[in-house]
Amino acid sequence: MSSPLRSTTSSSRAARATRRCLAALACLLCTTAQALDVAVVVRKDSPVKQLSADEVYAIFIQDRRQGLVTYDVPDSDPARESFYLRVAGKTLTMMRGMRARLVFSGQARPPKQLPRDEVIQRLLADPNAIAYLPLNEVPPGLRIVLPLPDIP
Amino acid sequence: MPSPRGTASVAASCLLLALAGTAVGADEQPWGHLHVNGFATLAATYADTDGQADFRSAQFQSAGSGRSRHWDFANDSNLALQLTWDTPYEPLRVVTQAIAANDTHDDFKPRIDWLYLGWQPAPDLSIRFGRFPFPSGMYSETRWVNSSRLEVRAPQSIYAPLPVSSLDGADLNHYLQSGPWLLRSRLSYGQTSTVIASRFGDTEVDLRSVISAAFDLNRDNWRLYLGGFISDTRVTSPQSKGLHDALHEQAQSNPSLNALADDYTPDYSRVWQIDAGIEYLNAPWTVRVEGLYRNSQTKLVLDLANWNATLGYTEGRLTPFVAIGQMRLHEPWRQQALPSGPPGAIAAVAAYNASLVTSNETILSVGLRWDLDHGLALKAQLDRHQLDDEQSRGVFTNNTPEFVGRQAAIHVFTLALDYQF
Fold it and tell me: Does the beta carbon of B120 lie under 8 angstroms from any beta carbon of chain A?
């Protein structure tokens, strides 16, 4: 027979192990939205001075680009999920479905996807380029046209 | 079991897609820009019909899991490539979408679903000439793009009853932006045709003079849709023609059969349909509701009042969802069964009465979508089909007589892997 103390200890150990397993599973299954402040940026001399959230939505999601060249960072970059959560209220999973609908109905082309470093290079090289970056990582030479701080 | 030819086709298609995947993106060339996109689904479906019927995803399919085969790998699987060529002459664009999928003869083979020339004379206006998606519902343009939705297949109550997915003709798209609102208006005109195979032979379906209007209003997380079409539709098969001729002949001596004969006319009849839908996508919730109402002047095209609702909750990469759909004939078919006779029309009347099957049923679905890396998504879905009418066979086909009006629910399980690039 096991003592009540031992029983309590093993049950709390089991509970801890269960919690650890669930946490590990959650990490495996989920891409957690990072509390990352992002900003929509262009080159300093871009003709675009300021944008509203609706205009950014139209440019990046509805493909109404008005001569601008849009860039996405990869899914693995936390800036991407932060951006789409703030601009469109959609997770990466939801955006994937929505993008599929827009692309395969011929209504919209997705932004060109590049690693963050390359996106910055394109932004610095092209006054018509527009993208989003972490707010605290906007390099000199770029200008913020719409800050998208974390929504509590 | 799927035919060896079908399995080989699925495997070959997957290989083709893997090769095509290397061509992802836009190639800049002096002759314009070529964009290559694609999608694919590999699905396995099991239906517990006790060997009494086959489950099918769409009305045009003629076999599936349940009676013809144990597991079905063909009906919900597909592979598609979409090429968009932005020509050097900027207002012109050529788009083609080739899709390999199970056809009405239970043969997994490719077809050209879209091939059109797009002309954009103004930023908010575009016109398409050629073959483009049939405008029949909120998701008719992405009916085959399974990665664009939570469920493993387009809601059956809305999309299964339509045997066509493309229209040959012209359509006009207009966008009107006003602040956060974006209204897409679409007017289409054209024709299309297809064949529906069954154990009784091939049925030819021709739609001509199709006129369609659709309005899609988007704002933030909301999308509202209202659309519809009207067409002259002809449905002909040896069976229906024989029935019409027999009824028409007997109507010489029994004029009451005249109206019945006209119901099965092999000539063109007017069919119209209205669709309405609403979508709300705001993390973590997905809500979609869509309904259709169809009216037909021929008994060969069912009068329908169907709807579907889907609710999903996204947590990270996982989205569990539930859906419910109902298929209803809005005409009281049961009251139209005829007594046998008059003498000489017994065979025709018996054939008529035997044709009185409905599709009335309620479909309840639960499922899980798991988004993986590299454009992949894994889905599991369990559907519960409850036939709501003693003359109903639901979406099933190849049924035994005992299956019609079956009271026990039928469960359909599907596991699918979607891919898009």
Answer: no
Using CB atoms, which residue from B218, B316, B420 is nearest to A30?
B316
Give the pLDDT mean for B88-113. Answer: 92
Q: Which residues of A touch B35 (CB under 8 A)?
A: 109
For residue A135, give both structure tokens: 């707010």
Count of A-B CB contacts under 8 Å: 96
How much is the mean pLDDT over chain B? 87
For the residues of B368-418, what is the DSSP string, one character each?
EEEE-STTEEEEEEEEEEEE-STTB-TT-BS--GGGTT--S-EEEEEEEEE
- Cβ atoms of B303 and B270 within 8 Å: the answer is no
Question: What is the H or E stretch that residue A80 is in?
Answer: helix A78-88
pLDDT at B332: 61
CA–CA min distance A128, chain B (Å): 18
Question: ipTM strictly over 0.90?
Answer: no
Q: How confident is the model at residue B290 (pLDDT cuts 50, 70, 90)?
A: very high
Which residues 6+ apart lie within 8 Å of B243 measured at CB? Answer: B264, B348, B351, B352, B355
Tell me the chain A residues in contact with residue B286 when contact means C-beta distances shorter than 8 Å.
94
Interface probe, candidates A103, A109, A113, chain B, greatest B C-beta count within 10 A = A103
A49-65 pLDDT, tens digit each: 999 988 899 899 888 88
**Chain A environment of B97 (Cβ under 8 Å):** 104
Q: Residue B124: helix, strand or coil by DSSP?
A: coil
**Bridge partners of B378?**
B370, B417
User: With respect to CATH, is domain A38-148 assigned 3.40.190.10?
Assistant: yes
Q: Which of B215, B296, B217, B308 is nearest to B262 (CA)?
A: B296
Are the CB atoms for B192 and B140 separated by under 8 Å? no
Give the right CATH number for B42-72+152-420 from 2.40.160, 1.10.287, 2.102.10, 2.60.450. Answer: 2.40.160
Ordered by start, the domain boundaries in chain B are: 42-72+152-420
* A30 neighbourhood in chain B, CB within 8 Å: 315-318
B286: which DSSP letter? E
pLDDT 10s digits, A70-117: 999 998 899 999 999 999 999 988 998 888 888 888 788 889 999 999
